[in-house]
Design goal:
ten-stranded antiparallel sheet, globular
Amino acid sequence: MRFRIMLPTLKPLAKTVLLHLVLTSAFLGCENSNSTPDQDELHVHTDNHGHVHSPPRFGGQISEIGHTHGTEGLIFYYAEALPDSGNTVRLYISSEDEQGNSTNAEIDGSSVLAYLSGADEDSRLSRKITFTATAATDDPTVTFLTAEIPKDLRDTKQLSLVCPKIVLGGQRSNFIMSIDREQDPVGNKPESNPETAPDVLEDSDSTSALIPCEDEDAIPKASEDSQ
């Protein structure tokens, strides 16, 4: 014997309960699927799986961007901020495996959009800047992302950087970090000599966090100040 439920004959409360059960069942079915992504996934969370990054290659301030789960294990991505003695900011983007082997990260594209503000400013007033990829003068295998600091921020010593989108190894991610411009200028050190890094890693005062990729357009009033 078959029973048919006629929604029009049910009371409003009964309809609501039935609809809730149907949607819950569909949701659980999706959650229990065993689909496997074809590509590595770049996580956007702060869990570093107990991994301690290597000392900054150029003595800068490091922020973790994220990591991938690949066929050969975890790969971690980092941004190292190297403020120059002039009016520019440089980033060195690196990748590191679980054994601590660090190298240049593969960055898709020749430019990266970001937003810059004073550390104590409202982030909604951030200035839009564009990092461009440039090779190190003494080592063409080393790539920096370089951007000019907007004129009205050139006397600001503590900066906040928001990068809403960066594509590393084909995977999209994002990060924010603080930059202390009062640290020793990178120009006082050999530009790409790993041996200049300190033997013991000392965490800088910079703070970092990961932001949702959807926040790319969530920074209103960003001014494109002439640089």
